[in-house]
Amino acid sequence: MCPVDDTAPQPDPVSGASPATPSWWKGGKIDLKTRLHAWWDGYRLPSAEKRPKTNAAAPAAKPAAGSAAAAKPAQPPADFWGPERILVAQLIWGDGFTFPGGGEFAAELAASLIVDKRSTVMDVGCGLGGGTRTIVRRYGAAAHGFDLSPELAKAGDGLSAKEGLDMRAPIAALDLADPEWKPRFYDAALLRNVVSLVTDKSGLVRRVGESLKPGGRFLLLDWALSEDETRGNAFASYIEGEPRPPYLGTVAQLTFLVESLGYTVKRTEDFTKDFRPVVLEGWRRIDTIVAKGMLNLAEGRALMDEAKLWARRIAAIDAGELRVARIEAMKKA
Fold first, then answer.
1. 143 forms bridges with which residues in the sheet?
2. Cβ(144)–Cβ(122) under 8 Å?
3. Average pLDDT, the chain
4. Which of 5, 27, 195, 301 has the fewest CB atoms within 10 Å of its CB?
5. Cβ contact 98:126 at 8 Å
6. What is the pTM of this model?
7. What is the Cα–Cα distance from 13 to 15, expressed in whole angstroms?
8. Which CATH superfamily does the domain covering 101-223+245-271+323-331 fall into?
9. DSSP class of residue 231?
10. Domain ranges of the chain
11. DSSP state of 178
């Protein structure tokens, strides 16, 4: 996780300009709650004391062309879900959740897939599996969760076991090279915030389709580009600040991808307007989290990092440069 730099000026998330001190701040002690609110509103408050300078590390030398180090393939992105981030994400979004929406939102998504007690559901991008377990409890279905983060998958599977749902709601790490999904096994598939993180989008969506029964239902909910090709400072800040580099397409491009891989698209929409208030609702819990003194220093920094992450995303949304796509489809018989 990135350390909180209290001395650096903070540019405006949309314009890139350094904003003035907020009018509501009257000076005095700057606690975590005050700093979080300042960050969310796009300001950086002054630091109470200057930090000592440290010697910057020298940049690593580049490997010579043709060397073993140069020939070594790039490693996948590191896992950014440490215990502190997992904790604060759940404080914001709810127990078992690392993304906005919570149980009711997951239940609504599953309802559009026409899930019942006879169904077996694939939940890809499930995080800690809070939504996966909600599907099981609400509809009586079996639901198998998969996530790109091994740490989230391990923690999520532990939560399923704790609730006695390890057989009906198992959570596993997703191996993109070999998902090992049974062909024609699932009745429905839910893909959340995972297609935007992979370069071989058609390969992933095709593999999901192969694992669905004929007539199986499919729902994709993910980040997307605006149709306007203009990209400003807000979008650049979003891209640079993401833990994993996103590979985005427009809603129209994602819809075409799904259609081209043997699905009949039933519904496609720009879901951004509905998603934005879901995000802001979770952040209203910040006051309670901080007021109760629930966090140690490392967890407080993790909360600041999460606030920065979502502030960049909301700024890109408000600039009209980042969208949320929702696509519902059915596998052809």
1. 121
2. yes
3. 82
4. 27
5. no
6. 0.78
7. 6
8. Vaccinia Virus protein VP39 (3.40.50.150)
9. -
10. 101-223+245-271+323-331
11. -
